[in-house]
Amino acid sequence: TAGLQIAIDGPASAGKSTVAKLVAKQLHYTYCDTGAMYRALTLAAMQAQVDLKDEAAVLAVLAKITISFKPGEPEQQVFVNEQEVTQAIRQPDVTNNVSTVAALAGVRQQLVRHQQKIAAAGSIVMDGRDIGTAVLPQAPVKIYLVASVAERAQRRYAENIRKGIDTPLTVLQHEIEVRDKKDSTRKVSPLTQAKDAVLVDTTALSIEQVVAKISAITAQKQ
Ligand code: C5P
Q1: Which PANTHER family has this protein been placed in (predicted)?
Q2: Tens digit of each residue's pLDDT (9 = 90 or more) over 156-166
Q3: Closest ligand 1 atom, residue 42 Cα
């Protein structure tokens, strides 16, 4: 049987991409990190030195680039045209600017269309902020992943340390709160739980427990 569409949304650093990748691996589905697309465009726009609030200017950058993914271990590689940007799009300056670019209606329209094409064949795990509400409103499996902000800041801190980025924990917590606020209050498809999404609070759960939960929910739908 053809695989399902699995939509995973939630606030920053709730563990979406970690569990989405593992669920995809377990089910032999494709994983699509939609945040990476917004990040890649943000990086390209920053490199082009355009005003990130200027929709026409950002759309002109988007028109000149192709954002693509290549399989890789431990993570998928992300490309802007021929340039590999996998690490660059996770840098703090991109992270702190991405919500500004993601709030632009024209940007969302185009990236959402791209995401819908990627997901059309099914057998996909897609994570982001608006997958269950806007990108794949018909997805049979929708998960809304949350965790306390203290726990999310702690996880981001540990992840940063592994990457050699040493932003203090209190600063990270503040950045997460600011980004969530921007993502939840924007006009176009703000971050919100879809009515038919299953709420999973990961604060006290291990990665394995979250993956098992999502796999069980998916199995019920197959
Ligand atoms: O998931 P990640 O933290 O990489 O997403 C980066 C940013 O991209 C989010 O804070 C949000 O502004 C934007 N985003 C979005 N819609 C998505 C995925 C990400 O607006 N589906």
Answers
A1: CYTIDYLATE KINASE, CYTIDYLATE KINASE/PANTOATE-BETA-ALANINE LIGASE
A2: 999 889 988 88
A3: 8
